[in-house]
Design a protein that fits this description.
The protein is mostly beta strands. Strand 3 and strand 4 form a beta hairpin. The relative contact order is 0.31.
Length: 107
């Protein structure tokens, strides 16, 4: 499948508490907090364009302010993508957060 071609099988999604601005030189989250294996990837293709979706859910035992997320390929410990939120996501103790990453590939 197209998602296997891009090496996304076995990917992880990480959440963190760092506030360092995004840089093309990023190789990890600024302050990793939790990591989970992503479900999927699932893909769909139409007219040489593809959407590849990965998702992971997190449950937090204590309250936390999540400010960054990352998509990681653990085999090479490569950071495929990183996003820093303009406003922290406040997660209460016992709360959950689901992150869905959609990659758009134009052929």
């Amino acid at each position: 499948s197209i998602s296997q071609y891009y090496g996304l099988s076995g990917s992880q999604i990480a959440v963190g508490t760092g506030t360092t601005a995004f840089s093309v030189n990023d190789y990890r989250l600024a302050a990793p907090y939790m990591t989970a294996y992503a479900s999927g990837p699932t893909s769909s293709a139409v007219n040489n364009k593809a959407n590849i979706s990965l998702s992971a859910s997190f449950t937090f035992s204590s309250a936390v302010s999540i400010t960054e997320i990352g998509l990681i390929q653990p085999t090479c410990n490569c950071l495929y993508a990183r996003e820093v939120f303009p406003t922290a996501r406040q997660i209460p103790a016992g709360g959950q957060l689901t992150v869905t990453w959609i990659l758009k590939v134009n052929g």
